[in-house]
Amino acid sequence: MTKSIVSIRNLHKSYGKVPVLNDFSLDVYPNEVVVVIGPSGTGKSTLLRCINYLTPFDSGEIHLDGQKIDPRKTNLNHVRQQIGMVFQDFNLFNHMSAFHNVAVGLVKVKRVNRGEARSRALDELERVGMLQYKDQYPAELSGGQKQRVAIARALAMNPKIMLFDEPTSALDPELIEEVLAVMKSLAAAGMTMVVVSHEMSFAREAADRIVFMDQGAIAEMGSPSELFANPHKERTRQFLSKLGYRENERKDESDG
Amino acid sequence: MSIFDDRAAEVLQSLPYLLQGLGVTISVTLLALLLGGLIGLMGALARVYGAAPLRAAAAAYSRTIRSLPLLVILFFLYFLGSDIYEMSVFTSMVLALGIHTSAYQEGIFRAGIQSIERGQSEAAAAIGMTPFQNFFTIVLPQALRRCIPYWGNEAAIVLKDSSLAYVLGLTELMRRGQYVISRTHQAFLTYLIIGLIYLILTLVLTRGLSYMEKRVKIPG
Question: Using a CB cutoff of 8 Å and minimum separation of 24, what contacts does B112-116 make?
Fold first, then answer.
């Protein structure tokens, strides 16, 4: 059996008395793209944030590349360098140009010399199609452009896996495609990814596995063709039909 | 007795003497601002990032200092200082003014730090920055920019409060003014000139800071 890049085992997390993750387990394998879908408030974002320990959890284990992460022994800053994360609200560093947003991690965290940081940052900006905007500041960029810089910033750390937390939810409809295109090209290049998103075009085209989450656990899981064509559970079916409806609605809007 | 008599000329001739007090006024102001800035920044850090006891201690410090008149702090430190060892009037004034402004600067810095969106700190953590790197690379540079206008107000207040040092006999601008008055009996004209000097100093300070604010403004 192939070794997983990230192995999530029996994760439990509650906010006060409200359980968010309920014995959640998932293995993500090299080069795999896992898309997590599910109703809001079902723990999708919390799941991603637990993987890189941005949110502490109550019990369970995360293994990265076969190594168990023990926050008391493992340096979490070192762990996080290996796990790229892209946020819904971009979270770019507002006082830095696009270039510096990408380069700062290389210089401050990886401590590579300035020349190398420069060429690597420019490479990553080119990879997301933002090279010509390298000197722009976040306030001068559109949402889609910001998100592409945020992806480049995460990629610059050369992560083993990329986590995407609803990367297109804060975008105007006409800007979504440019971000999805970057994500699809990453997937095609073999990046291991866990993506929380309801962009069905991305899921159909790029996902190896769809995880349908409900009430903090995996309700159903399968390849996109299996899950979309023939969902086993009523809950999944209902949810997918709602998504389909919303997808059609958006098409209507952009037509009109 | 008219406001201006033949001794008015004497006041104008005393201008160089008055201006010699500028050095003391400016150095008291700058040193107090620096001291207050350091204490204020540490207090803000304690109140934003500190554990509960540290937060409480920093808040108590701030509240206490804010509720004391500068003059009380000044006399307290002066008499305490001269009891323990020969603390100079200059040192007493810098300490008193520095401690006084630290409580207000703490509030300014704290507001600046808290105004930076949490998401940026999360993004910094997500690329593996330590909390220390995050603070100095991401949070502080943006927080300080936002603080400039409010800090400028505080700096102008400190500049003018430095005149209180005259009560201890420190020969800054105000004290020298008093000497000129006792020689010339031209209180109105002397205070007018002193007022103008403070006006010019304050203008230079606030103009300088707003120039700086524009220089470091984040594009967009």
Answer: B112/B44, B112/B143, B112/B144, B112/B146, B112/B147, B112/B150, B113/B44, B113/B45, B113/B48, B113/B139, B113/B140, B113/B143, B114/B48, B115/B143, B115/B146, B116/B142, B116/B143
